[in-house]
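Work Package 3 (structural annotation) set out to generate three-dimensional models for the target panel prioritized at the project kickoff. During this period the team completed the workflow that converts sequence records into discrete structure tokens, so that structures can be stored uniformly alongside our sequence database. As a representative example, we reproduce one entry of 200 residues exactly as it appears in the project archive.
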Amino acid sequence: MDEFLDIAWFKIVDLALAVVRAMDALLAPLHPLGPAAVIFILAVATVFLTKVFKRFYTTRRYQKLRQEFNYWSKIRKEAMALEDRDKGKRMAKNIDQAELNRVYYDYFFEGLLNSILTTILPVLLMAAYVNEAYQPDKLQKLFGRSYVFRLPGSGGEGAPVGGLFWFVLSLVLVHILWVVAKRILGKKVKPDNAGISKES
């Protein structure tokens, strides 16, 4: 058993090293842009991939639990809408105790696991790659300096920014830009839809 685990571990390490080498080769043509641009591109790619994964991949159990949760939520709302308020509250409480609470927690934890698989894990893997590929000594070798860039400051040269910190900051910036772009595009689409509906 120990021998099998050792072989499996070495296979995993070999695979990880092969992926790192492939990433290095893929990003090498972008190095003339500088480390800040390359890491920002990685952040954009990471956000895009996580959005795609989250949209197109959900477990069957998560879909089933979502349907169950929506069903029992609808039943509870109908109970609360009864003319007899006391009877409605009793029915809603029974629904909560019998089904809705259980379904909610199962739905929540399945959603959390789904998010870990589609969002958190890809971000952590990319962060690990950036941390390894853009260490100070590797930055020095590739770009002639041991940092991505320096923040302007009163101290003259300014504070140096490392690869991992810039990657995390880039993720935040990309998410902000994503939200802003969705709002701008949403505002542009709404008047067009309204015009179409009026004409029809």
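The longest strand covers residues 149-151.
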